[in-house]
Write a structure and sequence with these properties.
It is a single chain. This protein is an alpha/beta fold and about 270 residues long. It folds into 2 domains: about 120 residues, NIF3 (NGG1p interacting factor 3)-like (Udp-n-acetylmuramoylalanyl-d-glutamate--2,6- Diaminopimelate Ligase, Chain: A, domain 1, 3-Layer(aba) Sandwich), CATH 3.40.1390; about 120 residues, NIF3 (NGG1p interacting factor 3)-like (Udp-n-acetylmuramoylalanyl-d-glutamate--2,6- Diaminopimelate Ligase, Chain: A, domain 1, 3-Layer(aba) Sandwich). It is about 30% helix and about 20% strand. The protein contains 8 helices and 11 strands. Strands 5-6-8-9-10-7 form a 6-stranded mixed sheet. Helix 2 packs parallel to helix 3. The longest helix has 15 residues. The termini are far apart.
């Protein structure tokens, strides 16, 4: 057996979610570290936060694979009084590389939105909300539509989402709480601005996070019901990605350990 490098794991991640599927200016890929670094242990996380880095240090992790990029904005200085800069220093000190697959994982077939649909047990999945790319042959879609195993009212389905996604609370936007739901559209993360794309899909409900106040009014005006369970439901990556990495390790005869962050990085609490 051999031990993989960061680059070898990047190659597998980019087969799963090619960078060409990412939205413009989305900082996906290797964020910190060295391509040639040997990796004995990988940690999968939704967010790269100081507490997650401390967890990775304690677990002797060599590579963190995250959904949300660690660096959305470039550092303007390296003053270690800033917690973000201090986190970078900790990663460098402990030789931990960081890789992110963000909107490319959202927009590829079988990626984040498919995983969220699977949590709800949706069937007959199909993509919607196409995203134009520089390579026109790419079939990039930021959303999936699927059928519920059994029809529920909007209100009942909201309760189902709360349970399935294991959230303490969610926001329901509807004028039709008793309407039957048979088909559901999902756009993980902050997808409220894409609500017009739901028209024509047959979905009675859109699931997405971080819906803005005025956008919610527009959704209601268009007769759309929306369930906002928050952005953190994308933590499904912590259960869906590790088995894939283990499959890659087996196929390539790699000696590699894989774990998921056990911390919740949801910044919100319901009181």
């Amino acid at each position: 057996m051999s031990t993989p490098t960061v680059q070898q794991l990047i190659t597998e991640m980019e087969r799963l979610a090619p960078p060409a599927y990412a939205e413009p200016h989305d900082p996906v890929g290797l964020q910190l570290g060295r391509q040639e670094q040997v990796v004995h242990k990988v940690m999968v996380t939704l967010d790269v936060r100081p507490e997650v880095v401390a967890e990775a240090v304690a677990a002797q992790v060599d590579l963190i694979i995250a959904h949300h990029p660690m660096m959305f904005h470039p550092a303007v200085n390296l003053d270690l009084a800033d917690p973000q800069n201090a986190m970078y220093a900790t990663l460098l000190r402990h030789d931990i590389s960081v890789f992110a697959a963000h909107t490319n994982l959202d927009e590829v077939s079988g990626g984040m939105n498919t995983w969220l649909a699977e949590v709800l047990g949706l069937t007959e999945l199909r993509a919607f909300n196409p995203r134009p790319k520089a390579e026109p042959q790419l079939a990039a879609y930021l959303g999936v539509v699927g059928r519920l195993p059994q029809a529920q009212t909007v209100r009942e389905f909201a309760v189902t989402c709360k349970s399935k996604f294991q959230v303490a609370g969610l926001r329901l936007i509807t004028h039709q709480p008793d309407q039957l739901v048979e088909q559901v559209a999902i756009i993980g993360g902050d997808g409220g601005k894409f609500y017009p794309a739901v028209a024509g899909t047959g979905a009675q409900v859109l699931i997405t996070g971080d819906v803005y106040y005025h956008t919610a009014h527009d959704m209601l005006a268009h007769g759309l019901s929306v369930i906002d369970p928050g952005h953190h439901i994308e933590a499904v990556i912590k259960t869906k990605l590790p088995p894939l990495i283990s499959q890659w390790a087996q196929a390539n005869n790699w000696q590699l350990s894989v774990c998921s962050s056990q911390l919740s990085t949801d910044p919100f609490q319901f009181i």
